[in-house]
Design goal:
single chain, mainly beta, Beta-galactosidase, Chain A, domain 5, 11-stranded antiparallel sheet, 4-stranded antiparallel sheet, 4% helix, globular
């Protein structure tokens, strides 16, 4: 009994239930009988300027089968790249970047401050970082991570992300409070690095959307091997692509339901994402080992106002 009480006291000193505490440098696992989600906490592993550090979902398993992939297979240190269900703020719309001079700082939501380098913003550039302040709350079925930014050039915010495990699904809820003096206008998307059962991309995969896909209105159409096949609301693959593919604005910038569904007919597993919002920007990127449908959410929040949105992921078996 004394050992049990001692262990409990030690455990509670690291995490809190219903109260914010400073993060510990660790990976947290949410798990039930069907789903297992691995979440890197803010200072764990990936710590570069691109992706949001609040709740980096690196792995999802459904009934023991992996559904999350990684950005690259040709590197030894994959913590320098995207994986799982990483999200990003402002890939093309960095807050305050145009307002400052070279060497000054601008905010990257979910990361901290980045030092401006060059006239054009690039999501792949290794900008110098001053990390924001992060707090973590851990409960039995969810993780809540809060990111409190520095104040810079009239911009500041508090981002709270909640990742909650349900039966065969999980959701990510975002709460963004503009605590600065200027409007925050940007966007957010989840990169969704998907690879069901680690199967290479090919004829076993079917990706569906609830809208008419409009290739004639794409912003970018990169399909060098002709392997990606596009029909009315469906994308399939006639082989395994050796080169990267990319398509932007799949709906032709029309405002559509933020939904996609990916099925692997070989593994008989599927996954879908449903946003709580409409979207006018849907992109698709992939390679031989991964496919990434991306639903963008527009953010326009005035000083002292709050904006909320969520993404729900459902895992299922294919009969």
């Amino acid at each position: 009994m004394k050992i049990t009480v001692l262990f409990l006291m030690i455990f509670l000193s690291f995490v809190s239930f219903g109260q914010h505490k400073k993060y510990t440098n660790m990976t947290h696992v949410l798990k039930n009988k069907n789903l297992e989600i691995h979440i890197d906490l803010p200072m764990e592993n990936y710590n570069l300027p691109r992706f949001d550090w609040t709740g980096k979902i690196v792995s999802v398993k459904f009934k023991g089968i992996d559904v999350a992939g990684t950005e690259r297979l040709d590197v030894e240190d994959d913590d320098r790249f995207g994986k799982g269900f990483y999200n990003e703020f402002g890939i093309e719309m960095p807050i305050g970047f145009e307002e400052i001079k070279e060497g000054e700082w601008f905010p990257k939501i979910g990361v901290g401050l980045l030092k401006k380098e060059g006239e054009q913003y690039s999501f792949s550039k290794a900008y110098e970082i001053e990390p924001a302040d992060f707090d973590v709350t851990i409960e039995s079925d969810k993780v809540i991570i809060t990111c409190k930014s520095q104040s810079i050039n009239g911009y500041s915010y508090v981002l709270r992300k909640e990742i909650k495990l349900l039966g065969n699904s999980f959701f990510i809820k975002y709460h963004l409070h503009n605590t600065g003096e200027k409007n925050i206008s940007t966007n957010e998307y989840n990169h969704n690095f998907l690879a069901i059962n680690k199967d290479l991309i090919g004829s076993d995969y079917i990706l569906k959307f609830p809208f008419q896909i409009k290739p004639e209105l794409f912003g970018a159409n990169v399909n060098p091997e002709g392997i990606v096949e596009i029909s009315d609301n469906k994308i399939t693959f006639n082989n395994t692509p050796e080169e990267q593919f990319f398509f932007s604005n799949l709906s032709g910038s029309e405002n559509v339901d933020a939904i996609w569904e990916l099925v692997n007919t070989k593994s008989k597993i599927g996954i879908s994402e449903s946003g709580s919002f409409k979207t006018n920007k849907v992109n698709l990127w992939g390679w031989k080992h991964v496919v990434s449908p991306e639903l963008f959410f527009d953010i326009n929040v005035k000083p002292d106002q709050i904006i909320e949105w969520s993404r729900t992921y459902n895992l299922f078996e294919v009969k």
